[in-house]
Amino acid sequence: MGSKERIARLKDETRLNILDAALDIVKDEGWQSLSMRKIADKIEYTAPIIYEYFANKEGILLELTRRGYIILAGEVRTAKQLHESPADQLEAMWIAYWNFAFKYKELYRLMYGVDMNCCELKKSMPEAELADDLIYEVIEKIMTVDNPPEDLVCRKFYTFWSIIHGLISINLVNKGRNEEMNQRILKDAIKGIIKYIND
Amino acid sequence: MGSKERIARLKDETRLNILDAALDIVKDEGWQSLSMRKIADKIEYTAPIIYEYFANKEGILLELTRRGYIILAGEVRTAKQLHESPADQLEAMWIAYWNFAFKYKELYRLMYGVDMNCCELKKSMPEAELADDLIYEVIEKIMTVDNPPEDLVCRKFYTFWSIIHGLISINLVNKGRNEEMNQRILKDAIKGIIKYIND
DNA sequence: TACATTTGCTTAACGGTGTTAAATTATTTA
DNA sequence: TAAATAATTTAACACCGTTAAGCAAATGTA
């Protein structure tokens, strides 16, 4: 009977509806306030039927993560295809990566574990800049230019911070990896950027 | 009466106990499973007592964050003091930053919003490497060495990834900042690393 | 058509969460 | 000793993820 297929198609559709509803809620209210009951509300069912489509809440997150990786790969691939030389390709691919992160903020957060519990109040925390200021100061001293413009120092600082914070984050979420390689990347990067500071 | 001070001292002590208990729980079970009742259990009180010392759960997290920043600043400062030349200082300071992140993993996670909801299952997700592989491939092609050793390519890849992921993370948690500066940092970094790829 | 079975979905419930208000106990003051 | 105040707990609310039981409609079978 064809009705079997029709029903199967409907089931697939509600599966998609669940994922879409979840993403919608997250876009509006953030990952913290995503709940099974809210998803159920949005798809006009009650919470328990979600468990017919996903093992649990984590199952939904996992599927969204998976889709995120697939979208990302797609964008990186098309970026590559638009160029010929490997250098141009590489640049375009990383820019595609960057753009993906902001086009699909919520997915990126989920994929790479970037999330802030309490963000607003953290801006009014003077202690947050203590270490930054110390480093800032030294960067200024290193620069051979006299009175380097503020935004130049700022850019150098952010470049440093990005690479080190990035390396740390990757290690914190992926647990360990290769300790020796990390040290080499870290030291290489620091030396490299210090040299590049007066480019 | 001196008892006033004694009582005040006791109150300060339980305040510290609350913070310590929270951190202990997080060290053992992660941020996700930190609860007011667990903290209360650990300090041998009931949950509502905590609200005499902190406005709410976020208040506890905020105070721990604050302490994290203070510790970090301390470690960076002493690292600086151990060297004379600004270049040596800068290197030592970033290494201190790095070491802080791993010595106080939980605090770092809290301070910079690095947390993974579902980490174990994510390892067995082949889609997670689709984009990585594409980029890997191109990096290999760029390298002038014939048959570059695996771990060298890997290091280059991680260097790229770190700086871009770091920059993205910082922007995702700090919301925006300077869009134009970001683009410059991004492009500079990419160009710089591509050049540095064949150092 | 009449009955039995399966399916789709909901209601109810369990143990957990953050948080608040009321009740209770202990301590200090008069 | 009685009254007032402080310290602490119990009870409750609304929410959470999740599971089991119940119900009602659709389906299969005689």
Largest β sheet strand count, sense and barrel closure of chain A? none
Basic shape of chain A: elongated
Most extensive protein-chain contact, per-chain counts: A-B, 84 and 84 residues
Q: For the terminal residues of chain A, how far apart are their CA atoms? A: 72 Å
Count of alpha and pi helical runs of chain A: 9
Outline the low-pLDDT stretches of chain A. Answer: none
Assembly state (oligomeric): homodimer
The topology string of helices and strands of chain A comes to: HHHHHHHHH
Strand count of chain A: 0
Rounded radius of gyration of chain A (Å): 23 Å
> Quick check: average pLDDT of chain A?
89
Write up what this structure looks like.
2 copies of one chain form a homodimer. Chain A is mostly helical. In chain A, 73% of the residues lie in helices and 0% in strands. The longest helix of chain A is centred in the first third of the chain and has 28 residues, at 2-29. Chain A is elongated and about 75 Å long. Chains A and B meet through helix 3, helix 4, helix 5, helix 7 and helix 8 of A and helix 3, helix 4, helix 5, helix 7 and helix 8 of B. Chain B binds a DNA duplex (30 and 30 nucleotides) through residues 3, 35-37, 45-49, 51-52, 56-57.
Topology:
Two copies of one chain form a homodimer.
Chain A: H1 2-29, H2 36-42, H3 57-81, H4 86-103, H5 105-112, H6 120-123, H7 130-142, H8 150-174, H9 179-196
Helix pairs in contact in A: 1-2, 3-4, 3-5, 4-5, 7-8, 8-9
The structure holds a DNA duplex (30 and 30 nucleotides).
